[in-house]
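Could someone model citrulline with this protein?
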Amino acid sequence: MLLALTRAVSPSIDRCELTHLARTPIDYARAVEQHAAYERCLERLGCRIQRLPDAPDQPDSVFVEDTAVVFDDIAVIARPGAASRRSEIEATVAALRPHRRLGCIQAPGTLDGGDVLVTPGRVFVGRTARTNADGARQLASIVAPYGFETIEVPVTECLHLKSAVSCLRQGFGWAGSREILLINPRWVDPGFFAGCDLIEVDPDEPAAANVLRIADTVICAEEFPRTRARLESYGFVTASVPASELAKAEGGITCCSLVVRVSRANERSE
Ligand code: CIR
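Reply:
Sure, complex below.
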């Protein structure tokens, strides 16, 4: 069973952190509607939604992805690079504790979940304004015992690594078990992903690389139809959700959930 942790859009979203975008007005009601459509899409694809408690005073709290990285055997609680976001982790700790052993990134390390791309056996960590060398090193040592090699990837043109590259398929690619990634090669150097098959976003849709794979379906932002059509031409099953309002807060499709594979035993004990 897949559990998707989500969190309501905060009414203070207009005070969100911004790094690469200029501040433009966010239509709160529309953002709430779009977020509800996102949750419905996750449900349709088989996820059970668990909403974390509302956090009206935490402008960026809808972007739960940044608060943790979930593996099959452990979850790593992040230490967000933006100080304004650090208190968001408490709700994530409480929600993940029943399902995973927890590791934690400690000061002076910083790490945002949006900077971590997990593939079988390899974890790519974006080195950004949010994730520092110490945070990346701590993550590497927490996950090494579980068989993961960690690869640091410099990212400069966008907020997070996963703004520039995300997973389309894990483990069962076109050539045996190669990974297939969706990438904007202008935002991150494809050379770091040797051994993976890469599909590029449409050049007119630079922000389209952030997609979320649930089971066999790739959820894309409605605003990027060309990249979605490109994925379908490669045989991917896709779904789309409107994501224009949260994009003004520099959020994408992966950012609004933390997906946790939950065992039936845990399901019963909840
Ligand atoms: C921030 O700057 O932290 C938020 N305004 C956007 C975070 C988006 N999260 C993500 O890409 N994982």
